[in-house]
Amino acid sequence: MSFEQNLAEIEDRIFRACQKAERDDRPELVAVSKRQPEGRIDAALSAGVRVFGENRVQEAQERWSARRETYPDLKLRLIGPLQSKKSEDAVALFDTIDVLDREKLCRTIADAVQKLGRSPEILVQVNTGEEPQKAGVSPDGVEDLLATAREHGLNVVGLMCIPPVEEPAGPHFALLA
Predict the structure, then answer these.
(1) pLDDT for position 9
(2) SS3 35
(3) 80: buried, middle or exposed (CB in 10 Å: 19+, 13-18, 0-12)?
(4) Residues 98 and 146 sit within 8 Å (Cβ to Cβ)
(5) 159: helix, coil or strand?
(6) Residue from 122, 84, 129 nearest 100 by CA
């Protein structure tokens, strides 16, 4: 099956799920491009995919910096953990940073926003399952982290979580809501 056929099937599944849920707004499809060969990235771009998720800043810089000129409507999301020392690079490249999980990162992202004059959308990562191997602020720390992010003028647009694999996802998303 070609990339275009796979994409059409996924888009159709999203459409049907939205109809079933009686949703008028469609979720944004994010193609996770980490570790994908360049040919697959080119196929996705040729098929019209414009939103990509990457989990490493340096790899994303190598992959996407030049492509930004060719695809001005490209949107990049950082979906992997962010080290504070990489905040400036992340702010320079990504349109959305999905992994704000600690106060120190609020400060370093805010410093980068000030320096670069660029303010990506931010999602606060919540470790709803309180799993020690996962990043994210604990549910009881969300309010304090949000307050810190607001104090630093960050463009926080929402919350995100990755529920534990062995648990139903619904209660975790309900907790975020």
Answers:
(1) 94
(2) coil
(3) middle
(4) no
(5) strand
(6) 122
How many CA atoms are closer than 13 Å to the CA of 130, on its beta-carbon side? 6
Cβ distance 80 to 105 under 8 Å?
no
Mean pLDDT of 25-54: 92
132, two tokens:
């020690």
Report which residue type is found at 4: E
**For residue range 121-176, what is the model confidence (pLDDT) as tens digits?**
999 999 999 998 888 999 999 999 999 999 999 999 999 998 999 999 999 999 99
| pTM higher than the cut 0.85 | yes
Q: What HEC string does 50-101 produce?
A: CEEEECCHHHHHHHHCCHHHHCCCCEEEECCCCCHHHHHHHHHHCCEEEEEC
| Distant-in-sequence, close-in-space partners of 13: CB < 8 Å, separation ≥ 6 | none
| CA dist., res. 67 & res. 77, Å (int) | 15
